[in-house]
Structures are given as C-alpha cells and as structure tokens.
Amino acid sequence: MRIMVFQEWNRVAENDHLWRNLCLKKWSFCNFSKCLGSQTWKQFFFKQTKQEYQMALAQPEDFIFKEATGNLGILGPMAYLSGNGPTMGGREKSIICTVSSKHMLYAWDVQEGTMIWSSPVQQPSITHLATLPQMHLAFTVDLEGTVKVWNCQDQDALATFPVSQACFSLEVCLTKDGPFLMVGNSEGDIYTLTVPELRGVSKVHAFKYTVDLLHCSPDKKWVFASGTHQNILPRVFFTECLLKPSEGKSPLSLSIPFSSCCRACWAPRRTSRITLMYRRGSSKKTGFTTFDLMTERTGGRTVIQVCVCLFHMKTAHQVATFLLPVHMESPIWMGASDGNMIVFESGPYLFLFTISGHQLQRFEDHQRTIGNLWADSLHVLTTSMDDSLHVYMWEEEGRYPYLKSCCHLEHIGSDLTPSCYVSKAICDNMSIVCVVSKNRESSILVMYSLHT
C-alpha cells in the first residue's frame, strides 16, 4: 500500500500540466516561447528558480567581467535580444542590442563580451529601440520616423515602414494572435503594425500632442498611451480593438482623468492595475496615483471601467493621489511590483512606498545622486553619478522585506575616470550590462555574467 502511494506521488510530481501551471502562476507576467525545446516544464521551473536564487545571492566576485571599448560612439538605448527573463529554448547566452551615436545598431554576446553583429550606418540616426526576444528581433525608429525590423544576423533590415512625423514611443506586444508593434508619433497618432512584415493594421489619432508613453499591460489586454504635455489626459485602449479595427468605428478606450503624467508602470502580477507618476503645480512636486481597469459586457458591447484605488488624501480636484513630502527631491524613474508597492529614486536614496503613500523602505547604498533606475518584475538596478551600481530583487509574493538589497558593484568598469553622462544598466537572470561614458565621443559597454 505504501509503495502504491509513493508511486502515485511520483506520478503526480512528474505531471507536466502541474508544472506548467506552477510556471504560469509564478511567471504569469512573462511571455513564454511557443516551444519547450528539450526542456520539460518541471526542468524549466527548477532552472529558472535556480538562476533567480543565484542572482539574489551573487557578490562581485561571482561575476565574470567583460568590457567592450573602442570607437563605439555614445551608446544610447539598449535591450536584451535573448536571455531576458524566462526563455523556454534552453539557450544559455544573453544577447543584447545597443544603439550608437555612430548611427548603427550593435548586437553583443554578453558572456563572451564580443560584438557579434552590427548594422550598416543608418541615415538619419536611430532614436528608439525595442526587442522581441521570443523571435530574436530588434526594432528601431530613426529621426525621420522610419521603422525597421532586424534579425541581427543579416546586413539589411527585414522590413521598413515610414511613419509620418518623428516618433517618440515604441512598444512590442506579443498577443495570442501573434506579435505586433505599436509606434507613437509627434502628431498624437498610434500606428499598429504586424511583425515581422511591418504591415499597417490600424492608425489611431489619440492626442493633439506627442505620444511619449506606450505600455502594454502584462496580459496584453490593454495599451496605455500618454504624453508628457500638461494638457494631455492619458488613455487606455482595449488591445483587441487596435489589432482588429472595425471600419468607421473608433477603438474602445478610456481617458484617465489625470494630466501631467511623466511615467507609468503596470503591476506585473496584477495585470489590470497601473500606477502613474505625475508632476503638478508651479513647484512641479511629484505624486503617484493608481488605477484598476475592468471590462464588462452590456448588451453585447464591452465597456471599460476605471476605479481609483488606495489613496492617501484627496486634493482640491478630488482625485485619488498622494504627493511626496515637500523636502523630498523629485524622482525621475519608477518601478512597480505586486500592484501595492512602487519604487523610485530621490537624490542618493532608493525608496519603496505603498501606493497609498506609506514609506516601507529607504536604501542608502549610493554616496551620490542616483542617475538611473531600471526595474522589471524580478530586479531593480540603480546607477549613481560615482559609477557605482546596485542590484535589488523583489521578494516573492510581496513578503517582507519586500525589496532585497543584493549586490553592490563599486566601480563600473576598469577606468576610474568620472563619467560624462549618467550610466545606465539592465539585467536578466544571468547577466548585468551597463553603459558608461568616460568621454564625450565614445562609451564603454560593461558586461557582467554569473559563473555557471
């Protein structure tokens, strides 16, 4: 009898459907590739968990250090082309794309510290970059508004699409109907394009001013759009209406009654919750407000509802919000975790607040002003003006201490000369990549990969 029970438990423990559900529950905010390759869901679960654990415990000596120097130009936007978050193909390499002031797009093998591909010189210069790691594709927009898609292997772009006017936002959306690219321009238009063909699907006139922000929700159900102009009210579009437009009908959307938005973050684990950072008044003080979005079917029609949630105080305009204390320096960057907490920098400090305005943590890991903050669903990276970098990780399921201080890299790179520009960094579970500019002509790409 006991042997039969053990056999039954072993059978359940090997059930691939069970492990798939565990993966989807823990990493529901991630886009899984369509094919497992040689891995089972169980193997993927333990591999991903091990990588997260290694990154959480890593110290400077646990990283292999690589540095790319030379006539690279000033490196601007960067994004992972593969290896960023959970991947199902078993690939151990982290590949990153960077845009250069030399009008080129580069691809780098982070573990080897080598450039593996570069585009031809582009005219005019590239201004924005986005990637789709699941398809190993990179997307660029140049100053004239020309959108291009690259496989970072062939010399020429796979496809191009001319957008009228300059573009200021770029977002890739991998949906159940396939991948799409969304582009916002200076005229307030949002273009939706197929991938990789870059064929036009829809064009929506969202605002009278520039579309500065485009963010798909983690479940790809919503698209948040906004500009930083003080007269713009952000809008949330029902993604399906942008992907499958009805002739003569405007896409289903809702204006959020909150102007002067400068940043926005979807909550990775609460896919219909979004937090906005805004600046108001002559002093431009910073505040945050959080919304929940819902849809309901009424008479065959879909209606969007927005609920303002968890506020600290009501302003004179009767909006749910909280303002940062007067003495606190206004942040530039922000990130979100489980939907109840936000992280942002202020001077040399990193703060964790509840969305209702209660301070949970203050980190003092930098001596000088934090110049850049990058956050995803697992990590938070900060870089300061003294070229130090600090790694934090979110605690699972919002457990105390919520955000864990992990690793401090005192000097990014081997050159101790002060940087001319603010350093910026991104990471996945295997690597950290940072751009450092020691002079005004060329940057250094610093790559850290964990010992395996």
Structure description:
By secondary structure, the protein is mostly beta strands. Helices cover 10% and strands 46% of the residues. The protein contains 4 helices and 34 strands. It has helices at residues 2-13, 16-26, 41-57, 239-243; strands at 63-68, 75-82, 95-100, 104-109, 114-118, 126-132, 137-142, 146-150, 159-162, 167-175, 178-185, 189-194, 200-205, 213-216, 222-226, 235-238, 253-255, 261-267, 270-280, 285-298, 301-308, 313-314, 320-323, 334-336, 341-346, 349-354, 359-363, 370-375, 379-384, 389-394, 403-409, 424-427, 431-436, 444-450. The strands form 8 sheets. Strands 18, 19, 20, 21, 22 and 23 form a 6-stranded antiparallel sheet that branches. A 4-stranded antiparallel sheet has the order 1-34-33-32, with no helix packed on it. It has a 4-stranded antiparallel sheet with strand order 2-3-4-5, with no helix packed on it. The two termini are 43 Å apart. The model is unreliable at 84-91 and 308-320 (pLDDT under 50).
